[in-house]
User: Fold these one by one.
Assistant:
Number 1:
Amino acid sequence: MESKAHSGVFHLLPLGLRVQNKLEALIDTHMQAIGASKTSLSSITTEALWRQSGRYSSNSELLRIKDRRDSGFLLSPTHEEEITALVASMVHSYKDLPLRLYQTGRKYRDERRPRGGLLRAKEFMMKDLYTFDSDSAAALETYEAVRAAYTAIFDALKVPYLVADADSGNMGGKLSHEYHFVSPKGEDTIWCCDSCNYVANEELATKRATNVDEEEDDSYPLVFRGISTDRSTEILIYVPASRSLSSEETPGWESISSYVNLHAVKRALPNDLHLDTGIEASTLSHLLSSATAPTQTISILDPSLSIAPDSSPPPSDPNPTPELTLTSPHPLTPLHPSDPCPICPKGSLDPKKSIEIAHSFHLATRYTHPLNACLSLPPASASPRAPRTPLQMTCHGIGLTRLIAALAALLHDAHGLNWPRALAPWEAVVLPSAGVAAADAEAVYDELAGGGVDVVLDDRPGKALGWKMRDAEGIGYGVVVVMGRGWAGGGREVEVQCRRLGVRRGVGVEGLGGEVGALLERL
Amino acid sequence: MESKAHSGVFHLLPLGLRVQNKLEALIDTHMQAIGASKTSLSSITTEALWRQSGRYSSNSELLRIKDRRDSGFLLSPTHEEEITALVASMVHSYKDLPLRLYQTGRKYRDERRPRGGLLRAKEFMMKDLYTFDSDSAAALETYEAVRAAYTAIFDALKVPYLVADADSGNMGGKLSHEYHFVSPKGEDTIWCCDSCNYVANEELATKRATNVDEEEDDSYPLVFRGISTDRSTEILIYVPASRSLSSEETPGWESISSYVNLHAVKRALPNDLHLDTGIEASTLSHLLSSATAPTQTISILDPSLSIAPDSSPPPSDPNPTPELTLTSPHPLTPLHPSDPCPICPKGSLDPKKSIEIAHSFHLATRYTHPLNACLSLPPASASPRAPRTPLQMTCHGIGLTRLIAALAALLHDAHGLNWPRALAPWEAVVLPSAGVAAADAEAVYDELAGGGVDVVLDDRPGKALGWKMRDAEGIGYGVVVVMGRGWAGGGREVEVQCRRLGVRRGVGVEGLGGEVGALLERL
């Protein structure tokens, strides 16, 4: 299906391209149903535009292009900047809204360690949809319309998937969802409640805060002293210690992630302040005790610690440092399997390895503001001084390459690949044995093709039936129709095989269309 | 249709993408007719592979990718190396041949001066087909099959084009053809005979050698002294001077291109020897007179100079330099309009500005040899010592982006674009005026769609008929069907417009399908 050319770089062979084209067509159908127009943006963008949006420095996976003038071109890993600049130049009236533009194209990423074949490659295929609305309520309506379209797309694959609440992270914005296949090959972890429909990704997952009543009397707070990435602030993190830890063995900075959910800390901190999690203990200790030590302190408390710990400066200090104490709304201790669900009273959480195949973000004005994609309000509310308002944006990606690789990994068995009907390179294949007349093979093909089945006839000369059957198993057609002994003996009966459903049954030509159709319905 | 994002970098908007998709579908039809399979190769390739083929150093238009490891990745301007490496790894039997693989994808080129919009951009869309055969005769059959497919593709556009003999240049190989649209916006020049079907590009064009009889008695040779790019050889070029030049005014090196057809000199020289045409006169003079002056000399003679000029070394020279004298098979003087055709006795040559839209090369073993795409011969001829033979390769490109830009430039008029039927975003548009009932507009649409016309209904609310008509003229649909006064007055007559054919005529609904179909046949 694909061939590895270089580390993280792959070619799609003809059958793989057919699978990808089927997926693209399925996506097109549902994008057009929500009025999205298909475009094709350049894969080349510029440093200048990415500096304007403020994303240039924070992205270490950008591939730069060296041209003869060293002009600062980049290969786009995603197109928020370009589409927003395009919309800013072309949309001049609120009558042009809502605007929904998408494309299916190649994206580029400087993977630190390309691995898992097509699951994580330098170059990959994405569908990316960008939407623009005049206000937040309209943008949320759009967000929900896309969610419905994505549900229709993934339902059509008939493979279970999960929709996880996600952190919008450095994409900016407020609302975010991820679509995952559960798979042991996955590099992501999602946490699912075993009782309600709570699903969240690793960054956003949380658990119910333990009531003070449930705490043991002898629980006491553990304190971790950290520093912000900008070195301006000492950050004190207070979490409850478990009973099994004696007060003598205070864990050091290097083991913080065993005792603290750093994602929860991040969300509890003010937006512009980031805990430096990568710093070494010795450097940290030096920074906190040196002459240039931070002049302000923020304390973050686990919600179970009802009494604010004593962290006031000693009375003798002539320059008391400015202080702020925040109680995190969510527990700061790490999630463990069977932790209580944050939503329902009875459920407990279960971590699952998964492959992320799609992602939605409500970006609000994260890009439209810096790139000046603005409109004046409609006449009714416009006054001579009406300011221009940035458009409300959402974006929605589906990783075609990764989705195909994930399905190949999920559905294959010892004999070869299996594809959902919607993606199979052909829904069915007809395999005549050497003795079958060409006209008979074509009649069987016509019977299926005439009934609307996307079928192919394997009439390659010089290949034995056994070879063709193994080839067909490897490729993963939905249904294999063998014209073998049952036909050759004059019985004019074909064998219909569907490995994924465990079906293998003799059928006459007159019943073939119905039989194959019924099997395909289930794939 | 498209939007310029940066210098030489463009986005395709929805209508432009529809045009490109129509062209891709047209090409797909004719590629599949010759048994070519569609693939999708990565746009990322490596320096190492390009060094192996020997093309790395000679290509100044390669865009390099800077990744975190400085790994020597490139953006492919063309895919001979990658496809040959792929075929080398996958084809193991002559039974797999002929093999014809193609793709439609983005290519990259570090344009020195991006200009002419999409005619010459950093990123552009190409269809590239690569074929592999076991021997030269089979490769030539393939070459002719592709020529027939290209003829069918370009004929379908119903716009005149020319097929020029071309020089295979640094692609290697022996046989080459270019497909051109004649256009004043073109950057190429092709030379056409006004009497026979001789067409050749600038590099390959030649004229009939003037007979000695026709020479004036007082013609005498002009000599230009040059040097090879590797500095090994002095190159003397002898061309006849015109009568108007007195023997006192001998033209210098800097004006050589006014007196000498340098393409013809290149072809007359041995393959591994290249005249340094870019060298400055002072540098050249220094190099030829210095102590390290070339130790060998090649003289290239225009065919009209029947007597070898006296260039033997003076007898006093103790170390005579090795010498070679070659008579060029083609005239070495530059081509001028009305020069005699090299093929037919009566025709004269006419230079035309043109846009190259496609190119075919018989590459032979130029890439299969260095990249080791080889096969053992079939059993009949195999002996225990049968050597592995490199496959015979041809390649064939169509520049989709440039072809679309060229057609837009050729067919547009003061009102907007015009497209060939095969590429129009829609073949026809129905424009109802504000007073027309929605059901009536849909009935007219259905009449056309039901007859197989690719039609769109412009029922955008709040847009006046005049606005829609101007919009439709700009877009360049094949046929515009206006439901205006002739309909509103109860006449139930539409106006069928075809700007390119100068047609504008009232038609009843019952005659509409036939009328529109007949117009589309001519587009």
Note: DSSP finds twelve helices and 25 strands in chain A.
Number 2:
Amino acid sequence: MPKTYQTLAAEKKAQQWDKIPKAWRLPTEISISHDASNVMDILRTCGLLNETEASITSDYDATAILGQLKAGEWSVEQVTVAFCKRAAIAQQLTNCLTEIFFDDAIERAKKLDLEYHASSGGKALPPLFGLPVSLKDSFQVRGYDTSTGLGCFVGEPAGENSALAALLIDLGAVLYCKTNLPQSIMTGDSDNNIFGRTLNPRNKFLTAGGSTGGEGALLALRGSILGVGTDIGGSIRVPAVCNGVYGFRPSVGLVPHGGVRDLNPPGTDGVLSTAGPLSTSLRDCSLFLKSILQADTWKYDSTSVSVPWLDLKPKPKLRIGVALNDGVYTPSPPVRRGLKQAVDLLRDNNDIQIVPVNLPDVKLYYQDYVRYMTLSGSDVSPPDPSSATFRLTEKHYYELFARTSEPVIPSLKATGLLSLPGTTLQGFFDLNARRAEAAKTYLKLFRDNDLDAIVMPPAPHTAVPLDTWSTITYTGLWNYLDYPAIVIPVDRVRDIDSADDLSNAKFGPDDEKLYSLYTGPEQYKGAPVCIQVVGYRHKDEALVNAAAVLDSIINKI
Amino acid sequence: MPKTYQTLAAEKKAQQWDKIPKAWRLPTEISISHDASNVMDILRTCGLLNETEASITSDYDATAILGQLKAGEWSVEQVTVAFCKRAAIAQQLTNCLTEIFFDDAIERAKKLDLEYHASSGGKALPPLFGLPVSLKDSFQVRGYDTSTGLGCFVGEPAGENSALAALLIDLGAVLYCKTNLPQSIMTGDSDNNIFGRTLNPRNKFLTAGGSTGGEGALLALRGSILGVGTDIGGSIRVPAVCNGVYGFRPSVGLVPHGGVRDLNPPGTDGVLSTAGPLSTSLRDCSLFLKSILQADTWKYDSTSVSVPWLDLKPKPKLRIGVALNDGVYTPSPPVRRGLKQAVDLLRDNNDIQIVPVNLPDVKLYYQDYVRYMTLSGSDVSPPDPSSATFRLTEKHYYELFARTSEPVIPSLKATGLLSLPGTTLQGFFDLNARRAEAAKTYLKLFRDNDLDAIVMPPAPHTAVPLDTWSTITYTGLWNYLDYPAIVIPVDRVRDIDSADDLSNAKFGPDDEKLYSLYTGPEQYKGAPVCIQVVGYRHKDEALVNAAAVLDSIINKI
């Protein structure tokens, strides 16, 4: 008889616990059941990190750590141990990890240190030499499960690495853990029946976001300074928003996505998932993109789109479109304030020209986006096993869950994605034809305004209470169009961010309902406020360059 | 009452005739009804071209002509008139043109000449300054029909230029005519009910190929030295083979394809058409690609894939895979001989390493390719107007033909494409999933053998008798995988190319049947023999570089 999900979960959690050395375990009184809603300080106060480890993990971004590693200031082992330890603590505080392979990582680190000495002082080191990189659970790492939090996939270790994992290893990175995500990988709450829910380290009553929520929490606690997620509607950017880190959704195909497990039916087309980084600095998004685009991605992944890194010169002047909202949902008071604050700083800068823009027809396109997400349909009530629609759904959602009798998580139920009708081939072509028109409209917006980027909110709200993140119009638009987009943290919810009158929500009843979610600063304490910077399709390098300029102005870096 | 196709054809042919100045008309005894099977010499002997015009159009490729134009050796008007005149003669010999706009071209040429003088001697001239470029009829040129040879689209002049036409104009090119293609744009014979059939100038009993057959014939007669076609299964490469010119199918999206009329249902996905050049030299394929990739293609076409030109250094050594056949059809004796001759020359060169390769599973992939081509189905016997399948077919083939009561051309009937069942959304996903596996297999072939390119036949035969080109396995494979491929002419059918025993066709009855088409050198007199050079997806620049090296060795350029 197959194991139930409860048994599998218990076994998996026990394995996780075993992978954390005793010396790295928190005293029970400050473990995951702690009372504080914000655990950010515990890393500093728990006493498990020595001074050097605290400094390595606290005071440097990936670019700076690489500099230290390549200069021989720190050994790879030293850096790896520091991040493994910090990730172990983060795990105990937020439940952000899935697979833990600290032992393998430290062993690899030692080998890299030997190579370093053999190379006599840093010559010809690979671009990411010795850099610890964490991966969302859906990436395959040889020898470890890619369960994606589903009972039915537990105990099936990957036979080979995902394309990106293989590439990162070849680039010199040290992989040391994988991170949590939601059941189905399609919600804004990283919660599943095997690993449980990842908590937001800044406020455990707010969501850590999804689907790359484990990375979000891990990065916020600096248990990683470079994590990789995937994004088909906002799955990198939503957790970046919730946890206050940088998150970059590149154009599809630029970063190898081969061998990533998602629960779409094989061969599904339309809107595609893309892999990208979460980081603690904007320049680390650059570092990631540059390292990947300078490599022969095509050798790793037959679906690669070979747009190379061009070492573009920074533009002296930038024209930045500003969209205050998406015409579907009104941003909550802290989001409006954060955007205004950022745009005011940009407007004051002589090198930035602000161009107010409206985003055309987002509501219409979002409807089509949702249709793309549910091409095969998911309406199993009443189930009709003879229909092709049911066959797909059954196979790809309910059937997977049913194998170990696991229930549907609350946030997945809430999305409504499990009760939508599918479409036909003609319906799919109609979606494509409408999207082709949308692409022309947005090309015109960028071209005719001569825009280098658009600045807008990444969502109509900050992190929200658990299981209430219900819409991704602000992020999903760019997946629909396949435009690159970066989330930049600009502030936190402050006492001045009072909830205001519902009449400010001017786009109808759905908008009002969402707007009412913001109840004022108290409940949202610690929630980061972010902006989103969007570039043109395939102009990812130009986007990271422009975003770096904006970030330096807004965050005074 | 709407006009019949006969009326529309008569009107259109009369318009065409009016567009050819009297002084450029051939004496009736050497007009299109001439007896000679090969009309290549008539251009030289007809006396319509003066010495300079003959030299401009005969002795230079596009790169050289550009050099002369930019150096001020020739005026744009002079070059334009020479090519207009030569195209007019080619039209009278082979029926290769559709829309003729010599007047506009000459007017534009005069303007460019003024600009040239204003720019004081050639500084900051656009990359294709003054170069005459011909376009397949399916490209829109403002003010002219894009009938694609269908009665129902006659008399509907385009309101705007196709993306590529607009880009070429911005790059300085002079557009002067559009060229013939088959009804449906889906056969190997450029024949339709409005313009009639384009003849092969080297042998009028053999096909001029399709679907870019008008360009093929025009280029062979040097009524153009740079023409642009489209290729979804071989439509650039087949006419290149038939007419003995260079033909390059780039990866999808690199050359803007927006605003090209094809008869696929809007939103069709799967295997996509791509735009590319036909030319009289390999370096002109390079010139074309470079000029396009250095431009901001994204500004012209929202479907562009922005792979930039990198000015790659030529590789000192090349590893070239050689596939003697595709495992489906056995090449005819002249094709085998031509390939062997070319490969022998390459093998003798110290900078080339030959790697024998087999192309895996082409038969299987070709079946899927055909399914991609008929996703919406075309089985209208018995017609069922209530089904979605019929709706599409009706709209996109038969219904278009029915509007002016035009019959189906013989080569379209012969393809069988009009009587295939369509598929479902699930069937489409299954095709995608199988293709993803195929892409991995072919990535492995390229990567594990460290190949720079594959050399193989472009077809199992040369140009064949009218309406008998029935298969495109050799070219379609690369559309299926979206790999760039170039056709290089290497020889002609010679007296030594005797037909041999059917037992040489070892891949089954279909192979035997096709193999029997070759009856010996007499019937195939003048037919060019070509090779195909295939590169990896998106590595188009590397491919044109490699092909240039191979071309220089094989054709001793």
Note: The two ends of chain A are 58 Å apart (CA to CA).
